[in-house]
Design brief:
With about 700 residues, the chain is of the alpha+beta class. The chain folds into five domains: about 140 residues, no CATH class; about 110 residues, Glutaredoxin, CATH 3.40.30.10; about 90 residues, Winged helix-like DNA-binding domain superfamily/Winged helix DNA-binding domain (Arc Repressor Mutant, subunit A, Orthogonal Bundle); about 170 residues, no CATH class; about 60 residues, no CATH class. Strands 8-7-9-10 form a four-stranded mixed beta sheet. Helix 4 crosses helix 5 and helix 17 packs antiparallel against helix 19. The two termini are about 65 Å apart.
Length: about 700
Amino acid sequence: MGSLNGVEHPQLPAGARPADDQAKCLEVDSTQQTMAQMDRGEAEDFNFENNPNGDENKANAAPPAVEVGKPFPKRGTVVENPDDSTSTVDEQEQEGIDGVITPHSHLPKPEPPPGLAPTSPDEPVKENGFSGIRADLLGRSKSLTETFATVDIGKFFKERSNSLSAIAKRLSQIGDYKNESDGEEGSESESSFKEEEKKRNESNCDSVVDVSEYNISGLRVVVRLKSGGEDGIKGRISFFSRSNCRDCSAVRSFFKQRGLRFVEINVDVYPQREKELIERTGNSQVPKIFFNEKLFGGLVALNSLRNSGELEGKLKEMLGKPCPGDAPATPVYGFDDPEEEEEAAEEEIVGMARVLRQKLPIEDRLMRMKIVRNCFSGAQMVEVLIQHLDCGRKKAVEIGKQLARKHFIHHVFGENDFEDGNHLYRFLEHEPYIPRCYNFRGTTNDRSPKPAVVVGKKMYKIMSAILESYASDDRSHVDYDGISKSEEFRRYVNLVEDLQRVDPLGLSPDEKTAFFLNLYNAMVIHAVIRVGSPEGVTDRRSFYSDFQYIVGGSPYSLNAIKNGILRSNRRSPYSLIKPFSSGDKRLEVAVDRVNPTIHFGLCNGTKSSPTVRFFTAQGLEAELRSAAREFFQRGGIEVDLETRTVYLSRTMKWFGGDFGQEKEIVKWVMSYLEGSKAGLVTHLLSDGAALHIVYQNYDWSLNS
């Protein structure tokens, strides 16, 4: 400890300059004391003076001469100020001040918070809000360089206060001045404005409203505007719909644009609600709009009411009271339709599979110099069936073949269906690829497999409903987070369990193509939700190869579907091997002929890929052509006439074998181009000069 003027002070560190360090301490202490008073609420009635052009003479006024280290004045002592005014310690204490210590006259002066200096030397002395500390005592220090960047606190708060006040006033006027006539007096408007502002502060609106953004320099304020369409609406708007219905899409868009809350009941997603629709309206046509429990009509009635200008009044009239209990019920998350929960009469073969799971000795065995896990022999299964059914060996073998055809059991090497003897078999749930299959959740789906075409149609309807609710109108942006929390997606996840033992060999060529196109696009959405979007080459390889579904007892990755099934077992870009080796049973499912337009129907979840869509077997060709035209209209091809260059999507380079040579690709693309681009390409191809083909960079970022 050191002594200065009889007062103990901490020992200064070696090499430090006492005057500089003490000045810094005084500066920090002065500012911290002031800010601490602000935090404690002692500084009331703040009055920040905005002084961008403060006078240097005033700012640099000398502070009162109080020796550093001198004991603090006792209560009642007179403290002198440079303006010849005096105050006692008692008076300062009454004003909330314990005391003021100013630095030595030879030390640098403490720096006030920027913006607190007086604006001019002639300005009268004012209390600055810091519990009685005089503004003229806080002059600007001469030691501070003029180039130091400071923030004007007073100006900051004034600007934000004015901006926020203007916003609040404008928001209040939206609801209040809308119905005022042009002849009303200003005083009446002001009174109405104050009443409306008071109501807004006292009320808490729970309705879903629009969101507007105001960008203010240095501050972002998000203000929720009450939708004019929901004023006075207490009831509920409901409407029945179907997937891929134009009229339903128009009704949905209308309600969204007006900011009206509504409940959509898609009878393709909730089949049991179709019966309710018929009971309420007399037919199954959609859309059907209900205001509370009352049937309003369809799109025609909605357009008629909108065109007449009576929509607002009708909404308030029919929805002015809370929704009664007999209105169409809101779909509830997590509940399946009763019909889907009820099991049909259990097949005998399912009972046999359950018995075998309990009685067969499942163990690891050595076969062909390999350890085969979780398997049993054909002879063991035959013996269990004979004992359980009290039947002959021939019948037991026939039951084993039925179990193999329905994919309850598989040969460990996929060599035969079922034979009596030492051949090894395992249950489907014990296959080594099961952990990578995301449509398998713990146990095998033992229900009787539905026809593949039926499962495919259900998948098409549910996924179309998902896109209508959770994708942009042009399908270029997908809300994956919203999908993951939706009832539609929960039902989709339940549905794809039916794919485990479905038979895809029963599909026609168009049905097969549409089925696997839709499955690929649905799996991409599922994969993004479950494992996230890939961010690098290694992640992409894992994304397309490791995320799998069991379909008909076999594993299918995104790569297997695209290159193995839809491209007739062709190598993927930069790969040396085909997806399916010879003898793979999935080769029987692959299409016979490659259709190049499938590349415009497959969405891999990136911004450079085609937009996500789903297809029907009946309109497959037309839908694929439409997808190709849309892809090229969105930038899949660009033509530079001056440099004689055609810019094509990199997809056409990666899969060039499906389209042909480069010039053949350009000719093939022409049939899908709009008139202006097709004319430019025709001109470049017909004049005989060299044509340059450049492939665009691929944007791998997520289409969210």
